[in-house]
Amino acid sequence: MHFVFVISNYGLGHATRMLPVIMKLIEQGEKVTIVAKGNSLLMLKNELGDASNYELMQYEVPLKFSDKGFSMFETLKAGPSFISLISSQKKWLENFSAKEKIDRVIADGEIGYHLKNKKSFFVNNQLRLLPGSLLGDGTELLTDVFSKGFEKVIVPDDENGTLGGLLTSKTRFYDKKRLAYVGILSSIRKKNVVRNVDYFISISGPGISKEVFTRQVMEQLHLLKGKVVVALGRPDLKEIASKGNAKIYPYLNRKQQESFLNKAKLVISRSGYTTMMELAEIDKKAFFIPTLNHPEQEYLAKFQKNSGRFHYSKQDSFNFKEDIDEAKQYPGFKNVPKTKKSVEKFLEAIY
Q1: Which residues contact 214 (CB under 8 A, 6 or more apart)?
Q2: Number of neighbouring beta carbons within 10 Å of residue 297
Q3: Tens digit of pLDDT for each residue in 105-140?
Q4: What are the chain's domains?
Q5: Model-level pTM?
Q6: Residue 94: CA atoms inside 13 Å, Cβ hemisphere, count?
Q7: Pairing assessment for the beta strands 241-243 and 246-249 based on DSSP bridges
């Protein structure tokens, strides 16, 4: 069978979570075509080597979270362009299908790529964009309407919303038969290693917010005792630096990231959905600092704290001395089925 994966470049999480599914299909001898661009395509090429792929310029996601926060005005203003781009995506895929025999289409974050006469699936961890309000219900209705061209919506969570809370569960408008909950999907694996890193700090986020976060972390490094590793998320920098008891890496590839996550006693990071899945996969404790004015991360951090799993603090008020002691009291995820099982459920949904 020929599987076509269309993967968004809006954050590497879309690519990393599809990686174990793609690798399993390749292992089974299936033909896989990957439609991606930018960092997502580069990462997948690096991880998959000679795996088949097809490069395509994709649309830029019109719903963005800037340093000024969520703007419904900007989102509505982008509406006509969004619809036009969806139309162009459908046309491209139809043309590609006319040239190549396609059996299945799996779109992660790219809602315009589906075919009428072929089974198409949409991977989504945000069935609502803004939970807990009338506006949130409205965004759920919109995502439901725009995903109608897909046979199923595949959700990387369980039906209880263990990771995503109201972002992934208790929907009002979706036909439950169209939702396939498969569980976590992570390219990070648990390793049997010595936990000799006291704190692993992963810095990410957009523009100015990331710069401010980096400066805040550097100013508070002296409050952390023991071995500290910091990943700046800056592939444009090369030199590894040291500051007191901290080793500062400009950028870590997936294997390095996996190694430090496994070695860490406590992870300090943003509260992104991909991070949630990685922590669940390797059974790791963490302290979250959500990206400023990022509704999804702010909601996930608050939800996980209210669920008794993780501590969090806002970017403009976190304090390592006080917050770290509290974060260590939270257990993290417990008894969450791992990626291997999730991949099996994913394949059951799309075959």
Answers
A1: 203, 232
A2: 25
A3: 999 988 889 998 899 999 999 999 877 777 778 889
A4: 2-187+338-350 (3.40.50.2000), 197-327 (3.40.50.2000)
A5: 0.88
A6: 10
A7: antiparallel
